Amino acid sequence: MTFPLKKLGWALLAAALLAGCASTPVPPPVPPEEPVFDAPYESRLDDPAANALFYYARAQMLLGEGAIDPAIADLQEAIRLDPQTLDLRYVLAQIYGETGQLKEARRTLEDILIQNPDAFEAHLSLGNMALAHGEPEQAVTYFRRVMELDPDNAMVPLQLSIALVRLGEVGQAIDELTLLLEKFPDSRPGRLTLGRLYRDMGLDVQAEQQYRYLIDNLDGVEQAYLDLGYLFENQRNWDEALEMFQQALELNPYDLALRHHVARIYVGMKDYGKALDALQSIVDTDPYDVEARRKIGLIYVEQEHWDKAAAQFTKILALKPDLEPARYYLGTVLERQEKWQEALEAFSDIPETSPLYGDSVSHLGFLLLQLKRTEDAAALLEYYLEQGEPRPQIYFYLAVIYQSDKHYDQASRVLEQGLLQFPESVDLLYQQGITLEQLKMHNQALEVMQAVIEKDSTHAEAMNFIAYAYAEADMNLAEALELAERAISIKPAGHIHDTLGWIYYRLGHYAEALRAARSAHMVLPDDDVVLEHLAEILMAMEQYDQARQIYLQLHQKDPNNPLPKEKLDALDSMP
pTM score, two decimals? Predict the structure, then answer.
């Protein structure tokens, strides 16, 4: 650590003092033209300036050894002996500042101003200190004084503008920067700062003007390309943003951060192929760039290329085994591939101390349920509800587990607890409606599903539930038809087509009913309810042979089901 003085003279004297008096050959003196008379010897042992120099020199030596406190003590003694030399105080203030003793640094600089109110560097240092420590009003005062002392300084107006922005005086900051640019039109920092102020204020046209000036007139400042690229990116003007970042890359082709920006633009454009190319070029340059690999993996997830995504996250974990987000992503991808056991192992490796642990528990509960380990799943989720932070998905999966074991009362209790914690959770509310239906509480179930639609007007499953309930009860068929058609437009699933077909059947619109029922059968060819409805519609349309084939299929699947047998007997008894 070194603390240079502001004046060379003191440093040279100190160096001479520390160097000692080693003997060095010197050329013979040139005879003087005039006689020289020796001055009488004067002792300088008690000379304050000489003693001050000694303490300063020793302080420098102590600083070189890292002995901060003794060095400060020597500098304080040097100042006591020679209070008029302000350079000593500057050095002391610098040491205080670099060692975090801000109060002492400020007091030392203020002492300089007492001796010399026009000390430029003291005002500047105090302004910077105030700005750095959240005192912009004081910073403005100091910077304005610096500008009075040195009106041609091109940097202080920038610092002043920053202080004014932090005070909320953005207009004044722009005025100061405008004046600066009138005096120094080629000030790169000035134009960049003004451009950013305009950008932050939403004055995109004015911001672009500043960046264009830098690009067109000042040799293409790299930061100007970047800032203008960010401006276009915020406008979602992808093509122009891409052009700016690519031009910045021409100036600095080895800047991997820029390549990340280019990849991000391609993602914004949904051009995943080029995004992957850009990210792969980063990995080719730096195989240890985990962030690039992470983005590659997420693009594969977006494209549903599960094998490629899993391979990428596996590579990341080989580089950084403790990177918990990568492990979480890997578990999610394996889950989507229905590799239940591998996904379980991935999520199980996320420790309880991780911020991702709560989300991992939800997945673990689901995976244990898929692996038919319902007791383990219930125990895990119940433990987490007792120990961890409550989450709606924990209540949801625990309720599903109880439902799978036909413990509907326990499922209902868990959902009630969850809704007390998370009353706005549509998933919990919908699952409560399902549970009430399983408990034969039909009217209450319908009320809950109506509440679901009120919270989420696009909830196709709740619409389908109500529509099917009305069709089964042969009531409110006009409303049921409207709900089913809305649900189909949002989610054209097989079971919703079945609901629509059953409503048309109840309305006596058999042709429409048959079309919807056949659509359901194409998606769900082995679903017993779909087959029963299709056969019933065919019976109504007097297509008895086709109906008989379906009832035979149902009877062969389950000989104990009385409905197919009854229908077959009825068909056999027909004339």
Answer: 0.59
